[in-house]
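ugh finaly. both done.
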Amino acid sequence: MSFKRFFLTFTAFTMLTSVSAFAAAPIKIGALFAVTGPAAFLGEPERNTAKMVIEEINRAGGVKGRKLELVVYDTAGDATKAVQLATKLIKNDKVSAIIGPSTTGESMAVIPVVEKERIPLISCSAGSKITDPVKKWVFKTAQNDALAVGRIYEQLQKQKLTVVALLTVSDGFGASGREQLKAQAGKYGITIVSDDTYGPKDTDMTAQLTKIRGSRAQAIICWGTNPGPAVIAKNAHQLGIKTPLYMSHGVSSKKFIQLAGDAAEGIRLPSGKVLVADLLPNSDSQKKSLLEFVKDYQKHYKAEGDHFGGHAWDAVMLLKNAIERGGDSPASIREKLEKTTQFHGVGGTFTYSANDHAGLGKDAFVLVEVRNKDWVIVK
């Protein structure tokens, strides 16, 4: 047989094998991410990660011999658009489940849609209200802001800092964080002497910081997502404020350091472990998953995999796990998600139940600090 004939025969065989491997219809997974707009620093790595993981799953033979098909829409961070696109995913695209949206406000807006249509949603947002109280069809992968607040307050308690000033963004994420900061203060012996907000598009917060500088605050807690917190870091630096500045997990990526520049030095915040994966002990049950994710993302996108892309990695892998243990119908996926135990993901070790659709404990967070333009673990 000539080489040319052999090559054509082999190619035809490979194509037939590939087609037969995915002879059944694909399992459609919907995704809503803020790929553009102010929250693009969340949505872009989430979209990239979801595509990467699903491509790898399909290359390895899919799930139960069936291909996963990802249908992604860009919400641009707009809650109204998110609702419209969620409806499109369910009615037109006939997806079996949805991952996302990227922000708390969008997630809260989409919840009534998925609950009514009985389609499982795995949100990539952090607001506690997304899953508290429990909604039958709604789960999440981002660590709860309630856990993040606890992690910050534990550190303040350890340092004997009991008087704080709050500066929170006036959106869904900021409102949820502010609620938790106020609700948990008493438990940790914390007194709040200043409680101020800023707008998501504000470009100068010197007025709020000047007010805080005149208070007796021993620490400042800023709650928001980029770029606002980076502006606050710069403003505080410009004003010569030496009061310790804590941020939320909403900025736990290298992007924050890039935006804040020298003003980021010394800032602390609670973060998922992926930011410091290489610094974790080998005994950490998450370390293997974290390093694999970071390596994969670097290979595909020439950038570091971060905390936010990790939320999408967890969402896709949790869905894969649920389908493998059951079927691809929305009802089966929902049931198996709720029975997930000890799933070692990027965001933490997930155990869902009928009473807990967030699935993580406070060990999902480490406290990190910016030192020499990089993240280190605070002991």
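ok and the 2nd:
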Amino acid sequence: MFHYLKYFLFHVVGIAAFAAFVGGGEWITAGLVGILAFYIVGDAISGDDTSTPEFGHPGILTAQLWMALPLLTAIVFASVWSVCDTDVLGFGAQIQALTGYDAVSARDNANPWHHVSGFFLTFLMIGIVGTITAHELTHRTWDPVSMMVGRWLLAFSFDTGFSIEHVYGHHRYVSTTEDPATAPRGRNVYFHMIASTIKGNISAWKIEQRRLKRAGKGVFSLANVYLRGQLLSLALIAAAWAMGGWQATLYFVVCAVAAKFLLELVNYMEHYGMVRNPQLPVQPRHSWNTNKRISSWSMFNLTRHSHHHAQGEVPYQDLKPFPDAPMMIGGYLATMIVAAIPPLWHKLMTPKVLEWDEKYASEEEKILAQQANAKSGIAGLQRG
């Protein structure tokens, strides 16, 4: 029973974010700080989770994933409501009727800094509650319900093309120069966010174009999954406009774009500096891994990335920890923060990349690594 319950930590985090927006003002900032501390401190003190339990009721675990859609919808609604001038759908009045708490006054008395906290909390939740869950669901190409839920979750970050490119492009070309999401050695993370976004969408379009051609269907039609995905995001933008006009719309759009860049930050740290011959199978050594307990439990084992790329069809609950795989700097959120600071990132990752060359690379990959080091512009790699 415990192994089913531990994944509900994910939902606890989401509910805490929703409650922070309902509380308004300083509660939003407190919620952001609390959630950041939960991941960073929790991973630091709780150690690794290397358990591999067997689950006899996988339907419960799938239902946990599906629950992310109403949860994220509630979080984003509360977030956008927090910047509106009116009490949309009487939300604040309902909160007061149920709890006695005057949510509207708390919202109206918030200072601009609390809205800044709201922005960070919103795009973080779109990334955690939305993208992480969608990543798992859109691998289940045989399950139409999971695909539908996953694509709606991706619509919150304007990234429904991820369901195409990630599954049919990234997993094929990961750790090679042909993969938009794999950052070559020495690349700046902020350049990578933009480059990977552009190249990833181009790749998704081309993949869908080829699929439609094989099926004998037109590219500019509702058969085009890429275009249908854009309509989902447009529907969310329209909802934000209906809630609060251009101000609410701008707020939501900026949060969504930031959440997309957050995904590219994660791609950056998951595959930075890896090299592979695209003609050879993907192995656990071709992804950076981590087994930190809090990240694993509250991110549906996204942390076990090495096994995921070696066998992309394996559901999250059955992923193995691979403690001998190349390891990230820390848990997911801690590593993300380091990756966002380029000088610190390169200082800490250069030794890890050189260790990968020595410990994990095949003879062919050692040659590819030497070439990548020479082009990196990082002195430590070039000397290595």
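summary for the 2nd one i guess: The radius of gyration is 21 Å.
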